[in-house]
Amino acid sequence: MKNAQPAALDGLTVLDLSRVMAGPWCCQMLADLGANVIKVEHPQQPDDTRLWGPPFFRGDAGEDAAYYLAANRNKSAMAVNFADPAGAELVRDIARKSDIVVENYKTGSLARYGLDYENLKMENPRIVYCSITGFGQTGPLAGRGGYDFLIQAMSGLMSVTGHPEDNQGPVKVGIPVADLMTGQFAATAILAAVVHRLKTGEGQHIDCALYDSQLAALSNQAMNYLVGGEVPRRLGNAHPNVIPYQDFQGANGRIVVAAGSDRQFRSVCKVLGLAELCDDQRFATNKARLENRELLVSILTAATVSRDVESLVDALNAAGVPAGCINDIGEAFSHQHVRERQIVRSMVRDDGREVPTVAFPARLSRTPASYRKPPPRFGEDTDHILRDFLGKDPRAIAELRARGVIA
């Protein structure tokens, strides 16, 4: 569906040499905002996530895993073997005409093909080149590969995720949060570099690591450690700094209560028929409530356990306290609010099949995200890119395909 309003990043071309999630997620955000993103894959080794299923989305020309569909809309796809000198030259040709390169190969590995920043900037000094790796371009871990699960473990995130009484130990977050955060940090850094280029005319290299990004995303837990000196521990659904900010048992399910201020705490007490707690010095301030956490939780639970969850949610929200039910993903996407906000969009492939996608979450009033092209099939735009973007004639394209340089 083409957007009639202008796109914020219209006119920028991104060469996407990344695979799996962090890099593709970054490039999808740039594509949603109007950039022309060219995704390059190896003819015999496509993006791993195309095979990370089931479930698979099936079409006339094959199938792609739902995982791949999550991070590759609004892109064009070409298949080029840049281990072949002719293929490397094709990719360099694209880089010469691009504004941004995003790659997530191991540190230093693209230099052998002349596709590293130092080589590309000699021919395109305005290039903004973003390298996404597990551990960055420098430091003792720089040569290691890094997947999301490993980073969640090494960063400390898993150590604060899970219930303290669970003997199975720390658990990962149920989505690839380290990849997603890294992709968002990378996109922000790229846009900052583009603004710098507008001011100075010069490009730059961005070193964006999953490990660094996940450490930064520890946010309040990191600062709790750095300021307080104590290593944070698993608290289940309880908040390390605020109470009551957790789930409670109701008569027919569990309810989440997020009271972030003394005023909201007093409102919780009144809704639960516990107004006497408002003046109890053990609970009058957040500091006091944290010191008496176990006692307060037991008192509140005794009051919630007999209450209908939905009516209690309504009463708390009416009193100005954020509260809600714990939904599964199906329930979340079935909610009327999600439908009215059009968070799920459909994109139609050229075979007529509709691909569902989750909308870009930020609503820009003048330059909104657009949904122009469903996630491309493997190599579907190779000829188009070579012909229209690089100016190759059909005979040259046929020769490259016959030699196995492209697919």
From TrEMBL:
One GO MF term on file is: CoA-transferase activity
Supply the enzyme class, top level: transferase
Q: Which SUPFAM superfamilies match?
A: CoA-transferase family III (CaiB/BaiF)
Q: Its Enzyme Commission number?
A: 2.-.-.-
| Designated name of the protein | Putative enzyme
InterPro entries hit by this protein = CoA-transferase_III_domain, CoA-Trfase_fam_III, CoA-Trfase_III_dom3_sf, CoA-Trfase_III_dom_1_sf
Keyword set, alphabetical order: Transferase
List, alphabetically, the Pfam families matched: CoA_transf_3
Superkingdom, according to UniProt? Bacteria
Q: Does the keyword Lyase apply?
A: no
**Coiled-coil region list:** none
